[in-house]
């Protein structure tokens, strides 16, 4: 527990020291169904939280605990989905970047600098940016964005689960689990599946 806390405390407030630095991240890039979701967050430079970290390092309970904290403490935040049809049209990388751009466009304040989780991004209007590998475990604003992207997407998947419960999206959230692939093989695909993805190993046998 001490080691985990030590890692969390090393998260940094800003990369650029810009008062309105925005962190952005996405969730759902590797899923077979559902949107790719991105969030953008500007935190006060004095913001602190002892739990906040990369969403993948936290339990669902902690992510849901952090969601309203980030929403209430952020100077401003935005969340955006890019849905399956567009993912299939422009590819998942472009869709992920578009979701991040869209989430940034929803901020109430224009950022002075953007930090991005990962190593791929496209300039957003005239705002300088920096991509940071594993940025969601290094910078608080990216970690906060990862929390919002993940929780908003999970809640969306739990909603569409009610329409197609046989895929158990409330549990697997659209990721390529054995259970999800077995359901695709048995029931076929839905309007929420990404048709450009390899939904089954024997894709050529799948009637799309």
Features of this protein?
alpha/beta, 2 domains, 7 helices, 5 strands, disordered C terminus, RNA-DNA hybrid ribonuclease activity, cytoplasm, RNA binding, metal-binding, manganese
Task: Tell me what the structure shows.
The chain is an alpha/beta fold and 208 residues long. The chain has two domains: 2-161, Ribonuclease H-like superfamily/Ribonuclease H (Nucleotidyltransferase, domain 5), CATH 3.30.420.10; 165-205, no CATH class. Helix content is 38%, strand content 14%. The protein has a five-stranded mixed sheet, sandwiched between helices. It is globular, with a radius of gyration of 18 Å. It is an enzyme of class 3 (hydrolase). This is Ribonuclease HII.
Give the radius of gyration.
18 Å
CATH topology of the largest domain: Nucleotidyltransferase, domain 5
Query: What distance lies between the first and last C-alpha atoms, to the nearest angstrom?
Result: 47 Å
Strand tally: 5
What sequence of helices (H) and strands (E) makes up the elements? HEEHEHHEEHHH
Helix share, percent: 25-40%
The outline comes out as: globular
Average the pLDDT over all residues and give the rounded result: 92
Q: Any idea what the CATH superfamily of the largest domain is called? A: Ribonuclease H-like superfamily/Ribonuclease H
CATH architecture heading of the largest domain:
2-Layer Sandwich
Number of helices: 7
CATH class of the largest domain: Alpha Beta
Unreliable parts:
1-9, 204-208
Largest sheet: 5 strands, mixed
How many structural domains? 2
